[in-house]
Amino acid sequence: MNKSSLQRIRKGLSRGLLYALLIAGGLVMIVPFAWMISTSLKSGQYVLSMPPQLIPNPATLDSYRRIFELYPIGRMLFNSLFVAGLTTIGQLVTCSMAAYAFARLKFRGHNFVFLLYLATLMVPFQVTITPLFIMMRIFGWINTYQGLILPGVFSAFGTFMLRQAFMTIPTEYEEAAYMDGASPLTIFLKIILPLSKPALATLSVFAFMGSWNSFMWPLFIVREETLMTLPVGLATLQGRWLTEWNLVMAGAVITVLPMLLLYLFAQKYLVQGYVMSGLKG
Amino acid sequence: MSLQRSVVKKYLWVAFFLFPSLAGLLVFLIIPMLSSLVLTFYEWDPLIPTRFIFLGFENYQTLIKDTDFWDALRHTLFFIVGYIPLVLVSGLSVALLMNQKLIGRTFFRGAFFMPVISAWVAVALMWTWIFNPKFGIINYLLGLIGITGPAWLYDPNWAMPAIILTSVWKDTGFIMILFLSSLQSIPNEYYEASALDGANNWAKFRYITLPLLSPTVFFTLIISLINSFQVFDQVWIMTEGGPAGATTVLVQQIVNNSFRYGRMGYAATLSWVLFLIVFAVTIFQTQIQKNWVTYE
Fold first, then answer.
1. What percent of chain B shows pLDDT beyond 90?
2. Which of A107, A218, B136, B213 could potentially form a cystine with B132 if both were Cys, beta carbons 3.0 to 4.6 Å apart?
3. Is the distance from CB of B76 to CB of B250 less than 8 angstroms?
4. Cβ–Cβ of A154/B21 closer than 8 Å?
5. Which chain B residues have a beta carbon less than 8 Å from that of A25?
6. Mean pLDDT score of chain A, rounded to an integer?
7. Burial of B117 per CB tally in 10 Å (0-12, 13-18, 19+)
C-alpha cells in the first residue's frame, strides 16, 4: 500500500467519525421531539405500556380532539397569536423610532441616554416583576390583554439592534433628501425603514418568538383560562399526580409547532436575532 | 433667530421619535426597578394593600440569617457549576462539527436549533415525561443495559442533575450559533499558512481557533452565567423547587415570597441581591478577561 492511499483511508476514517458524531448528536436532539409526537398520537391505554411503543400502534388523533374539547386550547392559541402579534408590532414601531433618534438625530446627551438603554439590559426581569405586578393592580390590569401585552412592547434590545443597522446606512441618500426639504419623518419612513428590511425582519421574528414562548409574566398576570397564552395553559395541563401524558404532549406539539414553522420560513432572521442577542452582552 | 428655531425644531423631532420608547421603558422598567429598591425597605402584603410598614434594613438582616436564601443560592450555584461547563463544551463541539464541510449540515443545524426556539414550558414537560421514573424512556433505556435508573425529578439527589441535563440539551444550539458565527469569521489564510508549516489539526485548533475564539468564549460565558442565575421556567415546571426543596433556586424563592407568602418587600430584597450578584459577576469577568482573552 502506498503512502497516498494510506492517507486517503485515514481521511476517510476521520470523515466517518465526524459523521458518526453528527448523527449521534442529531439523534439526541430529535428523539425527544419524536417521543413527544409519538406520545401525543397514542390513546390512553398505550401511553403507559412497557416496553414503550416508539411508533404508536394504533395511531390516533384522539388526544388532539380531547384537548380541544376539555380545555380552551383554541382560545389560548388565539391569545398567543394576538399577544405575540401586537407585541411585535409595538416593538417595531417604538424601537425603530428610538433607534432612528439615536442613530441620526445627534441631540445633546444622546450617548448618555443610549448607555442608559444598554444598562437596562442587565436588569434581571425578577427585579421589576414585583412592583410591575403591584402597578398592574393599581391600574386594574390584572387579567387583561393590556396587562399581558404592554410591558413587553418596549425593548432596549430591539432599539440597540435597529440602531446598529441604521448606522450602517450611508448618509448620502438623506443629505439629498434634506436639500429637497424633507422632514426627519419623511426620511425615516421613505429612506431608513425601506433600507433596513433585513434588520426589521430579524426584530420581528425574534420579538414574536420571545413573546410566544414567554412564561413568567403571563403566568402571574393572568389567572383566567380564557386569557391564558399557550405556555401558561400548557403548564396547567400537568396535574401533580395524575397527568394524562398524551394530552400534555399534544398541547406541547401545538405550542412548539408554530415556532418550528417560523424557523423553516425565517431561519436566516431568527439565527441572526440569536447572534445579536448573544453579542449584546 | 432662525438658527434657534431650527434647534427647537430639531429637539421637537427628537422628542417625537424618542417619546414612545422612552416613556414605555420608564413606566414598565425604570420606575418598577426603582420602586423595587424602595420596596426592599418596606413590608407590603397585597392582601392588605393600604398598609406599608417601614422596616429600614430589616429585610437585609433577615436575608443574611435566612437559611432558605442560602439554600436557594447553593442550589443555584449547583445548577451553574453543572450547567455552564457542559453547555459550553457541547456548544463549542457542535459548532466545530458544523464548521466542517459535511453533507446535511443545514438539516443538523436545524435539529440542534429546534430546542432553542421551543417554549421552555413545552421542553420542560417533554423531559418531565422522559424522566418519568416508571414509564419514561430514559429509565427504560437504562434498564436495557441492566441499570435501575433513579426516580430523577422525585429524588432530591437526581432532580437537579435532571434539570441541568435538560437545560444543556435546550441551550446547546444557542451556544453553537454564537460560536459558529465567530468561527466563520476566522480567515482561511491562517489555516493555510499553518498547514504549510506542517501544523496538525490539534495544533490548528489550539494555536489558531481557540485564541481567536476566546472573546466569544468569554461573552458566551458571561451570558450563560447571567442567564443561569435567573434559572426559573424549567424548575417551575419540572419540580416547583422540590422534591423536599432540593431544587429551590433564587428566582423560585423570589416567586414564593411575593406570590405565595405575600412578602413583597422581602421578595424585592431577594431580587436586588440577585441583581447585585449578576452585576458583580459581570464586573469581575470584565476585569479578569484581559488575562486570557486574545483580541486580534
1. 54
2. B136
3. yes
4. yes
5. 94, 97, 108, 112
6. 89
7. buried
Contact assignment for A231 to B119 by CB distance below 8 Å: yes
Secondary structure (3-state) at B53: strand
In angstroms, rounded to a whole number, what is the distance separating the alpha carbons of residues B226 and A210?
Answer: 18
CA distances in angstroms from A162 to A4, A136, B196, listed in the order given: 53, 29, 43
CA atoms within 13 A on the CB side of B22: 16
pLDDT band at B1 (very low <50, low <70, confident <90, very high): very low
Contacts of B133 (CB under 8 A, 6+ apart): B139, B149, B150, B151, B152, B154
Cβ pair B120:A231 closer than 8 A: yes
pLDDT at A176: 85
Q: How far apart are CA A167 and CA A110, in angstroms?
A: 14
B131/B85 Cα distance (integer angstroms): 22
From chain B, pick out residues whose CB is under 8 angstroms from the CB of A133.
Answer: 258
- Indicate if the pLDDT at residue A92 is higher than 90: yes
Mean pLDDT of A180-191: 90
pLDDT at B291: 66
Cβ within 8 Å, pair A124-B230: yes
CATH topology of domain B58-292: MetI-like fold (1.10.3720)
Average pLDDT over residues B187-206: 80
Distance CA B81, CA B88 (A): 12
CA A20 to chain centre: 31
CA distance A262 to A76: 19
Coil, strand or helix at B290: helix
**Sequence-ordered list of residues with C-beta below 8 angstroms from that of A175, at least 6 positions apart, any chain:** none
| DSSP secondary structure of B132-192 | -TTT-HHHHHHHHTT-----GGGSTTTHHHHHHHHHHHHHHHHHHHHHHHHHTTS-HHHHH
Higher-scoring residue by pLDDT: B212, B41: B41
Where residue B242 falls among pLDDT bands split at 50, 70, 90? confident
Listed as own residue / partner, the contacts of A60-65 with beta carbons closer than 8 Å and 24 or more positions apart are A62/A246, A63/A244, A63/A246, A63/A247, A63/A249, A63/A250, A64/A40, A64/A250, A64/A254
A103 to A155, A159, A161: CA distances (angstroms): 16, 10, 11
Query: Cβ contacts (< 8 Å) between B110 and chain A: which residues?
Result: 263, 267
